[in-house]
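Might you be able to review the protein record set out just below?
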Amino acid sequence: MRLVVPLLIATLALAFAAPVAAGGPTAPVTSTLAPEGLGESFVPGVRLVSELPGGYVEEEFILSGAANNYTYAELPVRDELVLLQTDVPWTTRIIVRRPPDAAAFNGTVVIEWWNSTAQFDTAPVWDPSAEFFVREGWIYVGVTNSPTSIGHLVGGCRTFGLLPPTCGTRYAGLSIPEAGVAFEMGSQIANKLKGNDADRPIPPGYDVERIYHSGQSQQGGSIITYATAFHFPINDGYFVQAASGARPINFLPNCEPSPDNPSPPSYPACTPRVQGADALVATDLPVPLVQAMTETDVPRAAARGSRQPDSENFRYYEMAGVAHTHVHKNVELIPAGFLGGPLAPPLFLEDACLNPLNTGADGPVFGKYLQNAMWANLDRQVKQGIAPPSGELIELDAAGGIARGPLGNAIGGIRLPALEVPIASYTGVNLVDPAVPLFLQSLLGLFCFLTGSSADFDDVTLATLYQNNDDYVSDVHAAAKDLRRDGFLLQTAVNQIVADAEAADVMGEDGCGSGGGAALAILPLAWWRSRRAIGRRQREGRS
């Protein structure tokens, strides 16, 4: 970043007088284990360490420091920062998940900036990739980085304002007074993790060689802002999930008038928002950055011009059929007895949406398989200098929406076997079930919109696509091998995809479907087979 402190600021009110930078990315951070006996830990994510192999250790720490808060110049440039406040005290919590033995650690640490859209911490980076992180021997560190989530924790973790508080006073001392403090705080935490302080949250013997920052959705936007304006040499790479543009550098009012704020305060009591290309992630960073977009996010990305071309250290990907959310199914959202009386059943995530779920973690279009390969490619580029593959864009229709083939699936993009060898149509959006209680519909309406849906093909359509189960499995295997060769699947994913196809029995016990009305599907079938043939020829022609 370039630090610019114009003389104008010295003439402004005392609260905004020109400060002298004192914090900085290497400022000291103290670390202690989270207190016990004051309340339960609030653990983001639904992939529990106890359910994973490897005996991973999970520990929670309270970290404290002081960071600077920045703004942009009145005419904002994305990497030109103006110092606004110095040495703003902060106290947050992190959760570290690590191998039980230092010998099993491969040197890589992933720092997830936990998402706060739900008004509490969630872990959309951890949930789809937990098995991969554990299998590879990586250390995962999740960080509370938002005043919104801090408020939930300090308030005792009363989720949705409905469920009983579970955290007690465990987090009473946490504070991030301004969201903009999180950017320099992130650098300070990374510096702490890569250092050798006695109170480092990672034990001695675990030699940290690489640190990658990651976030999804709005915290993906935070990573765009962080990587572009705050890149710090201690960081070795970035992974942006499902975010197309930068988040504000702080949360002072926008300097531009709006219906909600027709008379904003004068600069620097307001913060200019970067626009156009300045709101996009930098593609010329000295370290690799991956931007992985789901089908849900592509129309917005296209509308704001963020489908940037690849560069030496930048890869932009669009995943066909993959939805924005990565939640796992069978997650109890509201416990039994809270909705409609003591005998009311629990509300599960899959009960919230009108159509069957299609999530990146649980499928049927498993975006996690693609993302795990992208993680592996990022790590290989940092360690060995091997450039990751480039991906194809999803096609758009004249209105800027997703272009779909006759079978209802997106055209183009990085295509899992579920798209290349379909047994259903998949989209990146869904609808909230009208039966969901009214007070939950706003939050769950957003969740369902960002969650994909699926609609199984009927027997007639399946009979025109595949002769029998063996034909289907053979096609799935071929598509998985192609994607593996192109660098977008790991072998573990290929094995799982093929095993799932073998167990699916998509054609039914007789292996031939219902047989009636097959002529109605001949035209879509011809188009689909032609498209697959073209795609295979294109892939075979790549180096």
Observations:
- The two ends are 37 Å apart (CA to CA).
